[in-house]
Amino acid sequence: xxxxxxxxxxxxxxxxxxxxxxxxxxxxxxxxxxxxxxxxxxxxxxxxxxxxxxxxxxxxxxxxxxxxxxxxxxxxxxxxxxxxxxxxxxxxxxxxxxxxxxxxxxxxxxxxxxxxxxxxxxx
Length: 123
Description:
Elements: E1 15-17, H1 19-30, H2 35-54, E2 60-61, E3 71-75, E4 78-84, E5 89-96
């Protein structure tokens, strides 16, 4: 007996990063000197973004923001915090796991829609 096929995602949602999430991403990747490690981390972020697009419900609820319904996917050592609707996924922050998220700023508006699709890396 063969196992059932894995669940297929619904149609992928567009993904958008807030301005502050883009800054977080640049700092996370830019803070790594080793080219191979930087490329590996960038690919791990891209995989997380693809997962959010295909299965936005799959992230866990952010404990510090449970009342807001934010979700997160761990890209160790980072927490990728996002919100989603029926029409899109919004990445709000990319937060280092050692930092206290209690007083974090979450920018709800986007930068004019310029950051659509899966972000690419300049590595």
